[in-house]
Amino acid sequence: MTSYTLRVLADHLNADVQGDDSVEISTVGTLDGAGKGQISFLANSKYRSQLETTAASAILMSPADADGFKGNAIVLKDPYVGFARIAQFLDTTPKAAENIHPTAQIAASAMLGEDVAVGANAVIGENVVLGNNVQIGAGSVVGQDSVIGSNTLLWANVTVYHDVHLGQDCIIHSGTIIGSDGFGYANERGQWIKIPQTGGVRIGDRVEIGANTTIDRGAIDHTEIHDGVILDNQVQIAHNDIIGANTAIAGSTVVAGSVTIGKHCIIGGNCAISGHLSICDGVHVTGSTNITSVIREPGVYSSATVAMDNKLWRKNTVRFRQLDGLFQRVKKLENNTK
Q1: Which residue is catalytic, options 12, 222, 239, 264?
Q2: Beta-strand relationship, 4-5 and 24-25
Q3: Would you call 12 a catalytic residue per the annotation?
């Protein structure tokens, strides 16, 4: 296991060292669980008491928390961001694939960049373009006319349909399906008539997509996921959605078709967003919220009720149904007092 001195790690972060800068660090850990050779972080002062008992060799901490601390530390403005960057620096996650496996099926018309790796039983279709340093995990499929940008990683069993473009430095986790048909049908006297989904999917750079997430292709125009977006596990992105740059969507959220979500939004888990609406930049939607209308102003939006005793919930449900009648009575009383 490779180790680095605290000085090397601090230089990587352009940060200061407090204490012994020659101490060796090989992995990261939590304050209460780290041991010798590990570095942890203190991002919330309420955990400051754990500094007294931690066995970590060094701590990432803010100048305020470092004041009076007797141990080894890397001192910087945002310890949590520092921790993320050090975790990347020390990351030992294996590659999704090494070289070209003999069982991989690669079309003769496919174009592969330098140092591309394709795992066992993966399939690369006709006219596919794979950029430099792309990794395609075992059992993954990249369909005809798709493009995968340099340094992008597909873990095992990812399915990319035809005419899908992924940018550079993306990470696509196992079980994800990109470019499946959107839910497009016309109804003729009770019979559903399928509308071919002839658009594609366009995904920008530095996008990460969690396991078992589905992104549908556009009906005519493309579904778009812009730069820096992060999608959690089991997220549904329907046809012709547009997700703005650096937006984050947590697990089990469903976005219906033709929705536009702005930049720098945070959508909590288990949310449902109705189709054909827009959400402006800088919106934070808390978990289990249902969005059924356009959001034009940045801010925090919620709709889910908190868990409560079932008997109380049943009473409140009955009262909720009575709200309109109560409103009408209050309105009548107000009119009578004018």
Answers
A1: 239
A2: antiparallel
A3: no
